[in-house]
């Protein structure tokens, strides 16, 4: 039952994979025609060669009997040999043509799958990225797709050609000698049983290999990003050991998969050689008796090789196709992941929000069965500064993530200027926000391009103005090429504070009506924080802002302070009101200034 289910899954994966080949019908048609002509020539040429060799042998015998020197002229075998050469030439031409076109088809399929994955990753909710390591996702986009392309452009083509060549060659072998063909088929039947047995085991090993590649890639990516922390806490040996364990698992999986993929060929070739020996003995006896000619015997052996060698390749390619199906299965699993809720077909439009934000009886949980937030309600008026404080894990960042619709709420509604955010397109909603996170992100590009990420059409003057507002213009001008300095390797040559300042400049540039600051100044020194605070105060003037902070000294001027604990707002009010309550906020505030 389980085996039948796995077979159906493999078939559905194969059907789905080939359904992805769109717009390739002309190329595939030419490939099909090339295969037919190639196989036809491969079957006809040995038969024609039998006639040529028999005539050549007869001419040599006639010359020997007459005592005359043997010579090849156009009339005496020359024309036949030229025709045979032309057939071999066109056989090569059509083999080259189908190989070149199939490579195009495979790479086009690879490109289409990469595009689908790229679009898919943009539609996946943050929950997916929280649950999967970046390295594992990366392996599906690179290793798995490369495996599919390699097998399609070589393995599949060879398999189709092998099947056609074997069928035609067997038919000609039966035409020349039924007993010799039966002997050959007995050996080949043993080969097919071996191939089938190995193929079943190889599919499991191929899937295991791809999984270990994903695991290894994820660990390496994780340790690369955390290299400074690993060194700081002297965990180099532990990290090396864990990478070694993942490498060993991958090595063992590769060893089994590669062995099963490659062990079949030598065994089948051994069986083929044994078949050749038996056939040669019987065919030699038939030539001595006169029941088979020299040309027929050499043609028969050509057909034996054309059947045995493709069968050997077919066994190898079947195993390779099993590995490709395992990779395709992982790729389609990614493409089938649950996506974000689609935007409304006619979304509400909010060109530039005034900044009135309302949370109305919100409930939310990463797992619907375990709610983190229950009945959260508050309102932010236009231009107000809303501070969100609380201990680590209280739900502060989750609160603003819900506002940006990075996650979907389980109950209640969030409105901006009275418009339900669920009725807006995500892009339309997020255009009204500027966001500075505690974890900075800079991409490979110039300083100017990184600042202009929030407004790609910004002029150089606008970029410089934003940099000056973020107090980073002077630092940029000290760099080798100023605003045209290239940043790479995650801007490792910049300090954490400098990277943060560049991300703050992005917010100044896009000039949003609503601002979210998640520990935006946590990586800068006190003096720089004061300077940024002045600029931020100017930026926040007339704009609604949400500030997540641990240092309560930075949010004493907030219009409303939300104190969160275990996903719930347990206190809200301004600084004086919360101190007067002498509750959780007051206790935290006095603990910082004790």
Describe the structure.
- This protein is α/β, with parallel strands linked by helices and 594 residues long.
- Helix content is 64%, strand content 10%.
- It is elongated, with a radius of gyration of 36 Å.
Q: Which value, in Å, is the CA radius of gyration?
A: 36 Å
Supply the helix-strand structural class: alpha/beta
Estimate what percentage of residues fall within beta strands: 5-15%
Kindly state the number of beta strands: 12
Shape, please?
A: elongated
Average pLDDT reading: 82
List keywords for this structure.
594 residues, alpha/beta, six-stranded mixed β-sheet, four-stranded antiparallel β-sheet, 20 helices
Summarize the structure.
The protein has 594 residues and is α/β, with parallel strands linked by helices. Helix content is 64%, strand content 10%.
């Amino acid at each position: 039952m389980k085996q039948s289910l796995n077979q159906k899954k493999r078939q559905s994966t194969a059907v789905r994979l080939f359904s992805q080949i769109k717009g390739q019908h002309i190329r595939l048609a030419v490939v099909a025609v090339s295969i037919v002509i190639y196989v036809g020539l491969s079957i006809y040429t040995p038969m024609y060669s039998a006639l040529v060799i028999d005539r050549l042998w007869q001419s040599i015998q006639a010359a020997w009997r007459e005592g005359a020197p043997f010579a090849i002229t156009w009339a005496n075998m020359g024309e036949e040999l030229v025709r045979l050469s032309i057939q071999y030439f066109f056989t090569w031409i059509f083999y080259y043509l189908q190989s070149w076109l199939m490579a195009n088809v495979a790479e086009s399929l690879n490109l289409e799958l990469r595009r689908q994955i790229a679009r898919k990753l943009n539609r996946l909710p943050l929950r997916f990225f929280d649950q999967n390591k970046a390295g594992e996702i990366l392996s599906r986009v690179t290793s798995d797709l490369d495996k599919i392309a390699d097998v399609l452009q070589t393995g599949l083509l060879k398999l189709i050609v092998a099947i056609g060549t074997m069928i035609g060659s067997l038919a000609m072998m039966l035409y020349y000698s039924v007993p010799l063909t039966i002997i050959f088929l007995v050996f080949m039947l043993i080969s097919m049983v071996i191939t089938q047995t190995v193929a079943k085991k190889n599919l499991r090993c191929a899937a295991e290999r791809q999984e270990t590649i994903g695991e290894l890639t994820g660990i390496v990516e994780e340790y690369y990003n955390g290299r400074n922390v690993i060194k700081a806490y002297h965990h180099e040996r532990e990290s090396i050991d864990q990478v070694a364990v993942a490498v060993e698992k991958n090595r063992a999986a590769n060893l089994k998969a590669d062995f099963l993929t490659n062990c079949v060929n030598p065994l089948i070739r051994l069986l083929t050689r044994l078949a050749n020996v038996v056939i040669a003995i019987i065919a030699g006896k038939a030539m001595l008796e006169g029941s088979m000619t020299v040309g027929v015997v050499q043609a028969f052996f050509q057909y034996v090789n054309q059947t045995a060698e493709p069968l050997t390749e077919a066994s190898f390619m079947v195993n390779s196709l099993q590995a490709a199906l395992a990779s395709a299965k992982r790729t389609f699993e990614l493409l089938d992941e649950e996506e974000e809720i689609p935007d409304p077909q006619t979304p509400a439009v909010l060109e530039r929000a005034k900044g009135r934000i309302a949370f109305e009886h919100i409930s939310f949980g990463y797992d619907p069965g375990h709610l983190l937030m229950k009945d959260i309600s508050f309102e932010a008026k236009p231009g107000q500064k809303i501070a969100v404080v609380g201990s680590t894990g209280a739900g502060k960042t989750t609160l603003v993530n819900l506002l940006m619709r990075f996650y979907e709420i389980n109950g209640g509604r969030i409105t901006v200027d009275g418009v339900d955010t669920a009725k807006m397109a995500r892009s339309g909603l997020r255009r009204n926000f500027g966001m500075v996170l505690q974890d900075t992100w800079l991409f490979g590009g110039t300083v100017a391009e990184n600042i202009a990420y929030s407004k790609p059409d910004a002029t150089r003057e606008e970029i410089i103005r934003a940099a000056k507002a973020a107090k980073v213009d002077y630092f940029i001008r000290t760099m080798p090429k100023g605003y045209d300095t290239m940043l790479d390797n995650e801007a490792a040559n910049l300090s954490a504070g400098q990277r943060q300042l560049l991300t703050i400049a992005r917010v100044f540039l896009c000039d949003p009506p609503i601002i979210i600051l998640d520990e935006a100044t946590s990586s800068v020194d006190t003096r720089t924080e004061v300077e940024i605070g002045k600029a931020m105060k100017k930026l926040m003037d007339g704009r609604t802002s949400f500030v997540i902070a641990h240092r309560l000294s930075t949010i004493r001027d907030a219009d409303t302070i939300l104190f969160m604990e275990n996903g719930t707002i347990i206190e809200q009010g301004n600084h004086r009101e919360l101190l007067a309550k002498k509750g959780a906020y007051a206790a935290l505030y006095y603990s910082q200034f004790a």
